[in-house]
From TrEMBL:
InterPro entries per record: Zn2-C6_fun-type_DNA-bd_sf, Zn2-C6_fungal_TF, Zn2Cys6_DnaBD
Single GO MF annotation: DNA-binding transcription factor activity, RNA polymerase II-specific
This protein's name: Zn(2)-C6 fungal-type domain-containing protein
Record-annotated Zn(2)-C6 fungal-type domain positions: 16-47
Classification via Pfam families: Zn_clus
Amino acid sequence: MTKSATRRRHTNSKLGCANCKRKKIRCDEVLPQCENCQRARRETCSYLSLSSAEINRIRLTHSLRNSQNKLLSSNFRLPTSTNNSFEASDSILADSRKPGSDALEFKFEFSKFNNKFPSSRYVSVQFHNTFVNTLELDYRSDFDERSPDSNAVSTDVSSSAELALSNGKALPSSVHRPTRFKRLDHRAQFGVSINRRHPMCMMLWDFSPDQLFSDIFFTCQRCFSASLSLSRMKQEALVGRSFPPNSITSLETKCNAAVNIMRQMFPEAMRIFRENLEVDIHTLSELNRQRFYLVLANWLSACSLSVLDCSIPIVFTFLVGQSIIFEEYIAYALKHSTSDRDGVQWLGFMTENILFIHLPPYEPAFLFEIRSNLEALCNLFDVNPVTLTNDADAYYFKRLRHFCHSMLSFLDSHILSIVYISRNEHFVTTYPPSVMFNAARKWWFLMPSKFHHRDTSSPAHAFLERLSCTVKMYRAAIGVGLDAVFPTARYLLSLGFEDPTFQIREQCKVTKPQPNEFHDPNLPEYLWRHMVYALRVYGFFQKRFKLYKHNVIWKGPFEDLNSNNRFSARHMKNALEIPVRSFNNLALRPEHYARQIHGHYDSILKDPSASAVFARPDESQIEMHHHSEHFDVFDHRHEIQLRPDFSCQYDYVPLIKDCPENQEYSIDDLKRYFEDRKGILQGIF
């Protein structure tokens, strides 16, 4: 009796493509089209016609299949149910529980260390609201070693000596030495410079003073330059530099007069721009140019008002006007079906700002430790360990001392005094926008972004240069730390606390100094320990933001957003990390970097308010194995080895893979982004 042939049964996969379901064969569910349809080459795979939401749903399901829940095998503490108050550092580790308590509070290890920042009570939080991470701007890598001449177009230019010799104008006894120079193509250089994310720099090459809105642009530019000069003169006066009598008062009067002119010009400029959009007689390229000059003038005005310490409602009026300009121009561009929507593509650099409103703010206890270490560095300036015989060196030392004390005063008056009092994790921005803006504008103009000691012949050059690098590194570490605590500042203000032009290896010496580099043999090691501390803080928050940026799946950043839920928190709800409270004596472990909470996937998929999902894959136990060791960065008995990623030998370094594809937003998404930003700013006042 012959055995009848049997056919493999279909798996009834709900996610398979339509062709595989019709043929009753197994679908491998490979995106963008399955391999069965690729081999057949006769039919179009149904995956190609799916919407972005359906594709993201398939990807989320794949991630859920391939993931394993390893939270139970982790070596860090989960939150416990307790109603104890954190009133003293000795009571933090107490584990007294009362029945019926329903508040979740976190208990941190290493809490009895003798740190100089005070112990604070942490309010009850939901499990999914565990402090999560933020930011890093994906500017040029510090390991980018491209030659500046690799993209330059060189053209031989004859020297003036050759021209003089050919014209017979050279002296009889002149020596003719042919010299040739390379002519740089500045347009090509802008394409690869650090400002490559800002297409406005390319448009400035085509600027004409006879075009519309050029007058308001020049007025705002002059006002901004004058306000920066005024701020610099006030800083130099505090250091001890003398200026002509009434020069500061005169410049301040001119700046205030220019501000009044700007405030009078903008309503008329906005009216003209709206009329040009309505009459529809200009090309899209011309309207984009008008929008560019008007937005840039608006931004220069907001910066000028910030430098001059104008009232926050006035500055926010200009920020709202900037959103209105973008919103109306994009609405006009959406009505035209032209293939090349000039001026819309360059808005891509703003899409990174959208991520920041979904990053939960970091726990700010580490800022008290930074303040303590910065105060210790300020004491070094008061002691003056190196004798400075040169007046120029003494003046440069006084400037560095002023910068260091300015950062210390900034932390005391604008950050540490409000960082817990003003915190509300159920509000969309966590902190009031006025508080964030007031801190941000003080930080932006607190000190120059670049400063070096250039007199290499000075006997104190090595000391002053190392001291400059330490001060700049503290500035960079505080900047990324504040971006982690105030992530929504980037969303509302388009600019955070981190300096986007800062390049560590170009502006700082990160190598360990020689013991005999200074007169005092202990001084190089002391400055090196401060540099290591600042580098650890900077490197940790840089890697933390990359981890979020490369492991986010979007469901739609502005879906179901209305006036009822606009001011509700938009944090990612399936990420868990243990915040670092001390970088002095705590090795970074795997639990200090965010992991996904797998049990929250189903609820997040059904939650219409969740627009961003954290999807970092679990690491293997071998990769997560890490030997933790207690140490003190400022203990000279322990040798510190600095890695290329600015971590030490005791720190765990996560594996961060580049995302296969970046999130791309449609023009309509950008329009709704500016509508949302305008709604938040207008809803505050």
